[in-house]
Design a protein that fits this description.
Order of helices and strands: HEHHEEHHEHEHHHEEHHHHH
Number of helices: 14
Strand order of the largest sheet: 1-2-3-4-5
Helix content: 25-40%
Largest sheet: 5 strands, mixed
Number of strands: 7
Distance between the termini: 24 Å
Strand content: 5-15%
Number of domains: 2
Radius of gyration: 22 Å
């Protein structure tokens, strides 16, 4: 029979583990099914894995990034405390977007060439994930990539609703893949100005119109919202923030257009107060030019809500074994094996079958303090 002292220490351990969860701001998430692996930075350098170039690997390590995923060679990187399951969800979403028919092959090679790192200096994009604003800002220091995009999932705070984290992750992953589409098809997805691409013309067509579009960081002219066919001139003036440039304004509009077009209501996506809130209303608002493009199989745009699951094997990023670690206790083990992610609260983890020895080691350390 275990002593009262054991349970007292166990309560102390549970408190420590729970405190670590709270301090990281992102709670435990449910298991995400994925064939894609989480690598260490050293492991990701291998040609059979992510093929990280040496200078990029060095930059990742110097800035606190320890986890790497690379669906089809497109990078997602995270700090040590970032939840494995949320990182895997992000990797699955990227895979869903670049392999829309789920056949284990990228839909469009021009898009993939733009986004995949491929071991080349200054090449490819990365979705950069940290548990707070400070970790996320390390994105600015990374060297060796063409673009970086912040996951920004820390903005959901300490919410226990994992759908909020998934919604933000999708939004930022979509922006990253949109960069690939813009490189491959600048006359459709480009952002040089508000006239030369389909998505930017559509943004300008609905600027400060309701139903239509307005990014709340920008300032609409007096009298807004305007009626259909009478948009404000683009770009707008900055407001309380600044999303006036096409790189922001067009991309933000098109992300919202995409989730409405898909009829994706399960996740709590952010929408402009001027934007329609249903697929039917969006289809009534959007131009034929935009809708024809979104339906055109040439551009492989998502037609329905994404699953957030990806299980195809033998693609880059699925080789080997995951080396990710438990976010809130690296020493927590089940049946003596590597750090296994479990969805249970830290308060309950030491009650799991096979977890007792792992808990004992941490309790021993507590007893020596």
């Amino acid at each position: 029979m275990m002593s009262h002292n054991y349970f007292a220490k166990l309560a102390t351990l549970s408190t420590i583990l729970l405190a670590n969860v709270v301090s990281s701001t992102i709670p435990c998430l449910s298991h995400v099914k994925s064939s894609l692996k989480i690598y260490t930075v050293a492991g990701a350098k291998k040609k059979t894995k992510c093929k990280l170039r040496k200078n990029l690997a060095k930059s990742l390590t110097a800035n606190g990034f320890t986890k790497v995923m690379c669906p089809f060679g497109i990078l997602l990187v995270a700090t040590d405390e970032y939840p494995d399951e949320l990182l895997k969800y992000g990797a699955n979403i990227v895979a869903n977007l670049v392999d829309s028919d789920n056949n284990g092959k990228a839909d469009d090679m021009a898009t993939l060439r733009a986004l995949a790192h491929r071991g080349k200096n200054g090449s490819g994009a990365a979705l950069v994930c940290g548990v707070n604003r400070s970790e996320g800002r390390q994105e600015d220091n990374l060297k060796g990539l063409a673009w970086t995009f912040s996951c920004q999932t820390w903005k959901a705070g300490t919410s226990k609703n994992e759908k909020r984290y998934k919604a933000i992750m999708f939004e930022e992953a979509f922006h990253m893949v949109n960069e690939g589409w813009a490189t491959a098809y600048p006359d459709v997805f480009g952002y040089a100005n508000f006239q030369d691409s389909i998505i930017c013309r559509e943004t300008a067509r609905h600027q400060c119109v309701k139903p239509g579009w307005w990014h709340e960081e920008n300032k609409c002219p007096n009298g807004a919202p305007f009626s259909s066919g009478n948009p404000a001139s683009s770009p707008l003036q900055p407001g309380e923030g600044d999303c006036t440039h096409p790189t922001c304004d067009c991309f933000e509009f098109y992300r919202q257009a995409a989730t409405l077009y898909m009829g994706w209501y399960e996740l709590p996506f952010w929408y402009s107060s001027y934007m329609p809130k249903s697929k039917e209303s969006f289809l009534n608002m959007a131009s034929n030019e935009l809708l024809d493009m979104m339906a055109n199989p040439l551009y492989n745009q998502p037609q329905a809500p994404l699953s957030g699951v990806y299980t195809k094997k033998n693609i880059r990023g699925s080789k080997g074994v995951s080396k990710g670690s438990c976010r809130d206790s690296k020493k927590f083990k089940v049946n003596g094996k590597g750090c296994k992610w479990v969805a249970e609260s830290p308060l309950d983890r030491c009650k799991l079958s096979g977890a007792q020895n792992g808990c004992k080691k941490i309790l021993q350390e507590l007893s020596m303090q």
